[in-house]
Amino acid sequence: MDVAQQAEGDRAVMEVGREVGAVTQAAAILRAVAGARDALGVTAIARAAGVSPSTTLNILRTLVHEGFVALAPDTKTYRLGLGLLEVARPLLNRSDVELLQPGLQQVATEFEATTSVWQVAPDDKALLLGRIVPASGIHIEFRLATRIPAYAGAIGRAVAAASRNAGTLPRATLRARFGAIRWHVPVPFETFSTEVEACAERGYAVDIGHLIRGVTSVAAALCDRTGRPRLVVAAHLFQGQLTEERLEALGLTLRGLAGTAQPAMFGVAEAAAARRGGR
């Protein structure tokens, strides 16, 4: 390989992962159209998407041509087009676990952790729907359909934080639910409550060896339109496996996964985790 070829190869490597501005703007425009109850004009779409009106108009013309957006000629307003169903159809009949699997697999690989997705049941239980184990030979294992108290461990802190944000979990109720949990390493309720508040602020929860001795779990909740927690994505590692910095990175990654999946799965225009941003 000569110097020119090497330089071209280096540029290709450096450019991996760079965002394409037009694609990012098109995605913002599609979200703006999708999030509106009624058809919108160019100016309203541009304002909602944070894109200049002229660029918005050009992108809308392309999206109309591709069938992703439909134009009402009489009112000059736009709605989502049937072309989106063509590209989304493979996702329509997939389960929650299948939809979350790519993100969970990425987390499992990056952090060498067992990842899982839990359904929050009406009987104050959390049901394990699926889990992905890392490629490493030694890992945390759970049986499918395992049920735990909905407010136990990191999963429980995430559920409690989401419920309190939605105003559906009085402190007295949380205390009563907490009192019924069997912890391997007991944690005072006041400490637990403080950790729930921390989860509400940062978007993810951590349990370090309290629910299961020697196991660290990190979790983030996905909520429906009412703010009710419906699913929880989590990661489970051996205690001490990650540094504090890596543990925080894991939490932020799970928060990002929840923030991305929540609008798509539950029709929430803006996920709570996304609203918190970098706080």
H/E element sequence? HHHHEEHHEEEHHHEEEHH
Total of helices: 11
N- and C-termini, Cα separation: 47 Å
Q: Are there runs of 5+ residues with pLDDT below 50, and where? A: 1-16, 269-279
Proportion of helical residues: 40-55%
What is the strand content?
Answer: 15-25%
Shape: elongated
Structural class: alpha+beta
Overall structural domain count: 2
Provide a compact summary of the structure.
The protein is an alpha+beta fold and 279 residues long.
Task: Provide an overview of this structure.
With 279 residues, this protein is an alpha+beta fold. It has two domains: 3-88, Winged helix-like DNA-binding domain superfamily/Winged helix DNA-binding domain (Arc Repressor Mutant, subunit A), CATH 1.10.10; 94-276, GAF domain (Beta-Lactamase, 2-Layer Sandwich), CATH 3.30.450.40. It contains eleven helices and eight strands. It has helices spanning 3-15, 21-34, 42-49, 53-66, 83-92, 96-111, 153-165, 171-179, 189-202, 244-266, 272-276; strands at residues 69-72, 77-80, 114-120, 125-132, 147-149, 205-208, 215-223, 229-238. The strands form two sheets. The chain has a six-stranded antiparallel beta sheet with strand order 5-4-3-8-7-6, sandwiched between helices. Mean pLDDT is 87; it is low at 1-16 and 269-279.
What are the SSEs and their pairings?
Elements: H1 3-15, H2 21-34, H3 42-49, H4 53-66, E1 69-72, E2 77-80, H5 83-92, H6 96-111, E3 114-120, E4 125-132, E5 147-149, H7 153-165, H8 171-179, H9 189-202, E6 205-208, E7 215-223, E8 229-238, H10 244-266, H11 272-276
Antiparallel strand pairs: 1-2, 3-4, 3-8, 4-5, 6-7, 7-8
